[in-house]
């Protein structure tokens, strides 16, 4: 894919997000750092960080709720609860394998 001749002043990020992603990736690969849309690139990276944290938090919350239900409501235990517990354990494990530093976020979150 070639870098498109889109003027730097055009707001590609808001006009065509997918094209902006392709263009940004290509510019990075080619080392054309001066042509990058730095403010929006920073915003995207920060959003990715928040998304990863929210995902771990959400999976941990669901896991803990189901573990508590499973322990303290034995009369309501079901296969779906077991499945949910295993599923969210696996999601958390995979997140930590992909990004071990998320474990630190998880520990800090649990302390607060």
In short:
By secondary structure, the protein is mainly α. It has helices at 12-15, 17-29, 38-72, 79-98, 102-111. 73% of the residues lie in helices and 0% in strands.
Instruction: Tell me the radius of gyration.
Output: 21 Å
The helical percent reads: over 70%
- Principal-axes shape call: elongated
Secondary-structure element pattern, one letter each: HHHHH
- Largest sheet entry: none
The tally of structural domains comes to: 1
Per DSSP E runs of 2 or more residues, the count of β-strands stands at 0
User: Poorly predicted ranges (pLDDT <50, ≥5 residues)?
Assistant: none
The end-to-end distance, rounded to whole angstroms, is 47 Å
Average of pLDDT: 87
Structural class: mainly alpha
Strand content: under 5%
Number of helices: 5
Could you describe the 3D structure shown?
With 112 residues, this protein is mainly alpha-helical. It has one domain. The protein is built from five helices and no strands. The chain starts with 11 loop residues before the first helix and ends with a helix. 6% of the residues are buried. The model has no long low-confidence stretch (mean pLDDT 87).
Summarize the helices and strands and which ones pair or pack.
Blueprint: H1 12-15, H2 17-29, H3 38-72, H4 79-98, H5 102-111
Which features would summarize this protein structure in a list?
112 residues, single chain, 0% strand, elongated, 5 helices, mainly alpha
């Amino acid at each position: 894919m070639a870098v498109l001749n889109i003027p730097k002043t055009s707001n590609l990020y808001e006009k065509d997000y997918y094209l902006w992603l392709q263009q940004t990736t290509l510019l990075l690969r080619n080392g054309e750092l001066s042509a990058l849309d730095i403010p929006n690139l920073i915003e995207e990276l920060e959003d990715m960080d928040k998304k990863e944290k929210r995902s771990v938090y959400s999976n941990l919350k669901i896991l803990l709720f189901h573990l508590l239900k499973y322990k303290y409501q034995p009369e309501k235990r079901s296969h779906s609860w077991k499945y949910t517990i295993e599923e969210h354990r696996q999601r958390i494990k995979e997140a930590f394998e992909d990004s071990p530093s998320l474990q630190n976020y998880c520990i800090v979150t649990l302390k607060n």
